Amino acid sequence: MIRVNPNYQKLQSSYLFSTVAKKVKDFQTNNPQKPLIRLGIGDVTRALSPAIIKAFHEGVDEMAADETFKGYGPEQGYSFLRELIAESDFVSKGAKVSAEEVFVSDGAKCDTGNFQELFSQDIRIAVPDPVYPVYVDTNVMAGRTGTFVDGRYQGLTYLDSNPENGFVPSPPNHAVDLIYLCFPNNPTGACASKDDLKKWVEYAHQHKALILFDAAYEAFIRDPALPHSIFEIEGAREVAVEFRSLSKSAGFTGTRLAYTVIPKEVKVYDESGNAQSLHEMWNRRHTTKFNGVSYPVQKAAGAVFSAKGKVESKALCDYYLENALIIRKTISDLGYKVSGGLDSPYVWFDTGMDSWQFFDRLLNNQGVVCTPGVGFGQSGQGYARFSAFNHRQNVIEAVELIKKELSRS
Amino acid sequence: MIRVNPNYQKLQSSYLFSTVAKKVKDFQTNNPQKPLIRLGIGDVTRALSPAIIKAFHEGVDEMAADETFKGYGPEQGYSFLRELIAESDFVSKGAKVSAEEVFVSDGAKCDTGNFQELFSQDIRIAVPDPVYPVYVDTNVMAGRTGTFVDGRYQGLTYLDSNPENGFVPSPPNHAVDLIYLCFPNNPTGACASKDDLKKWVEYAHQHKALILFDAAYEAFIRDPALPHSIFEIEGAREVAVEFRSLSKSAGFTGTRLAYTVIPKEVKVYDESGNAQSLHEMWNRRHTTKFNGVSYPVQKAAGAVFSAKGKVESKALCDYYLENALIIRKTISDLGYKVSGGLDSPYVWFDTGMDSWQFFDRLLNNQGVVCTPGVGFGQSGQGYARFSAFNHRQNVIEAVELIKKELSRS
User: Fold this and answer.
1) Residue pair B63/A252 in contact by the 8 Å Cβ criterion
2) CA A51 from chain center: how many Å?
3) I want to staple B372 with a disulfide (CB 3.0 to 4.6 A). Which of A6, A101, A133, B359 is the partner?
4) Do A4 and B120 touch (CB under 8 A)?
5) Are the C-beta atoms of A91 and A123 separated by less than 8 Å?
6) How far is CA A3 from the centre of its chain?
7) Between chains, do A72 and B253 touch, taking CB under 8 Å as contact?
8) In chain B, what residues touch A119 (CB-CB under 8 Å)?
């Protein structure tokens, strides 16, 4: 008899964004005439920029002739792209990373979700709370947690992110083995300073722990004092992996390209305490379970790192950052406590009521979609997240509606 | 201390095709002047067809304007594509499949590799031998096997494919829970008849087992008596999942698009024997760990199912099938026993020596790359696989070189 992975039964309802999508669909079915503005899921709305489109077409044209056609590429990504990424995103910004340490993939969701496969079943895991649900759900599926009790999975160490710590948690006072961090943070919009990250790198060295650093939103950092990569921190190359994505930085949510950096120095250990190469392990996983990213997409991605592409991508992020500032200012001016919206496309604020209650009110009364904070974890209860990824006119209309709703409550 | 998944240490050397690639690279470094013809990895060489290229460009153009831009799509794939697949590949050919049962992904390698995650750790697994290494390696990584002893992982049931059974194994005489089948077969090129598949479907019903049916090569079937889908067999919708891919049928190895069909009737069981929906479980997995296929790639894939696209794709497969026939005839005429090459792009034959020895001889003496049969499993020892995916001129030159080498031995 074919028996299922029993851990799936521990999962709470469906994936957060699927639940939001269902509620939105129901609203639209019941209110076919009402306009709807989506500031929920962090999904970009503006076209790919001209440099990217040009390269994308060129990539497609190469596929049209036998002489230039590309079949299977290297699973890790084409060298031209890995070299551009290492140079543009790291070396030129003072972080040592080589092209061979860059693994190209079709999404940071896949990579952050799949990475846990490399580790033992009984490692101790720390996740921020609130947290991007993928880190948690994939470990639940793998059987590394107990059941869900009072809003939390047993066996995980939750790192509370709250106004007291500026939504940047410190290392716990006990040992954990695997730590998920994300800065600029999804969902709180908070950024970690170099000193904050130094504490984590020191902690990882002390406990032989590994940091999985999600930097999917680094392109939104404008404050020159803030680190873009964990590899700007001394010693991080021995204890950290970094996830990057073009989804938000270059509008690739529907085009699909991300990359993961695994320094060759990162050591992980077998049961006898012998060091193993994490780089080699991921390479084995990546070549066995993945077949590389579509060639024209890699060609398009290369253009993001051209002189023209860099200017265009920065302008795109600036546009969304202005949206974020408009949302932040609106809510802040009404006297609400706000995090994010600076150096981040997310605005996080305390609604003063239950998160789903606020979500339902804002949707049903005003036709505006947010993401309920409690969907990201217990510490997100009472909060809501607004995404700045939308057209300016929609954001301007949305903040008027948000203002109306917040004045009612 | 961050400890690794100990199962990775059970894996034998590196992934087969990485080893072949390394040997080829070494040969090229040592013989920079010598020509090389690749009939090893099954990688297409001919350009995407005009209908596909046109749609691919249109998809890119849609990404160039805010009004038509696509961000995150449904993780399961766009409805337009799922509907085309269900209608063209199944319904119109007499197999009942609905669009909702089709999950679009970036590769059958990913899907066949990831699917095992849905099941309990202690299920009993049967794989053919020889076998596409991904089925085995992903279960090794997940801890469902013992160590590698005498060419086989302990705990797996190997289904010998040999000349006696025409390379189509029958169900074992004991109960297993999960069965991997692939027809037309990679690597043997053998095809299963409807009667062969009926036996497996009956077996699965009898033992409440699940069949994972890899039909990545169905587009090469020309014999009207052979089934293209396991869903042509009565009762299969309760006990089977089918994997399809555009990689070989439409030249998508570098473009990336595949799909997996999970009928809503398929039942799997929890520890108490209660039935669960496999469709729902995969949907949960797919939405949590995957973010959909690149939109322009889905648009291009849609064109494969247009009237023009169907004609072009058939012509492409016919071209490779002619190559296969040339290879098959050459080897057969020399008196060697050959399988495949009819209704299949692979030719499989008994070399009369150790597989790697033949691989090395053919590479070093003639500059022709094959895939050593033993790389697919113990029962492949002594065999070699030739892929028909190459340009005609290369195949014509290769068969002369193969003839030369086989006449030497």
Assistant:
1) no
2) 25
3) B359
4) yes
5) no
6) 33
7) yes
8) 2-5
Q: Show the beta-strand stretches assigned E in B351-405.
A: 368-369, 371-372, 383-387
In B255-391, where does DSSP find H-type helix? Answer: 278-289, 295-304, 307-333, 355-361
* Beta-sheet strands, E only, within B54-156: 102-105, 125-129, 148-149, 152-153
CB B141 within 8 A of CB B5: yes
Q: Which of A106, A363, A218 is nearest to B73 (CA)?
A: A106
Residue in B263, B206, B214 with CA at minimum distance from that of residue B238: B263
Compute the CA torsion angle A358, A364, A366, A368 (nearest 10 deg): 70
Phi and psi dihedrals of A230, rounded to 5? Answer: -70, -20
Nearest-Cα distance to chain A for B33, in Å, is: 20
Place of tokens 């500032």: A325
CA distance A111 to B290: 9
Contact present, B344 and B366 (Cβ < 8 Å): no
Q: What angle do CA B284, B286, B287 make, to 5 degrees?
A: 70
Q: Nearest residue of B to residue A203 by CA position?
A: B1
Is residue B102 within 8 A of residue B77, CB to CB? The reply is yes
Q: Residue B374 is which amino acid?
A: V
Structure-block tokens of residue B201: 């479907």
CA A283 to mean position of chain CA atoms = 22
What number of CA atoms fall less than 13 Å from residue A220's CA on the CB side?
Answer: 34
Q: Is the peptide bond between B130 and the residue preceding it cis, with omega within 30 degrees of 0? A: yes
Residues in chain B within 8 Å Cβ distance of A63: 47-48, 53, 56, 254-255
| Cβ count within 10 A of residue A407 | 8
Answer yes or no: are the C-beta atoms of A344 and A191 closer than 8 Å: yes
Q: Which two tokens stand for residue A18?
A: 């699927």
**Contact yes or no for B288 and A66 at CB 8 A:** no
CA-based Rg of chain A, rounded to a whole angstrom?
Answer: 21
pLDDT lower than 50: segments of chain B:
none
C-alpha angle with apex A47: A46 to A53, nearest 5 degrees?
A: 155
Please report where in the chains the tokens 């150790």 appear, as a residue.
B354
- Asked if the Cβ–Cβ distance from B1 to A269 is below 8 Å, we say yes
Q: Which residues of B touch A280 (CB under 8 A)?
A: none
pLDDT in tens, chain A (409 residues): 999 999 999 998 666 777 898 899 999 999 999 999 999 988 999 999 999 999 999 999 999 999 999 999 999 999 999 999 999 999 999 999 999 999 999 999 999 999 999 999 999 999 999 999 999 999 999 999 999 998 899 999 999 999 999 999 999 999 999 999 999 999 999 999 999 999 999 999 999 999 999 999 999 999 999 999 999 999 999 999 999 999 999 999 999 999 999 999 999 999 999 999 999 999 999 999 999 999 999 999 999 999 999 999 999 999 999 999 999 999 999 999 999 999 999 999 999 999 999 999 999 999 999 999 999 999 999 999 999 999 999 999 999 999 999 997 5
B253 contacts in chain A (CB < 8 Å): 71-72, 291
**How many CB atoms within 10 Å of residue A321?**
20
Q: Is ipTM > 0.85 here? A: yes
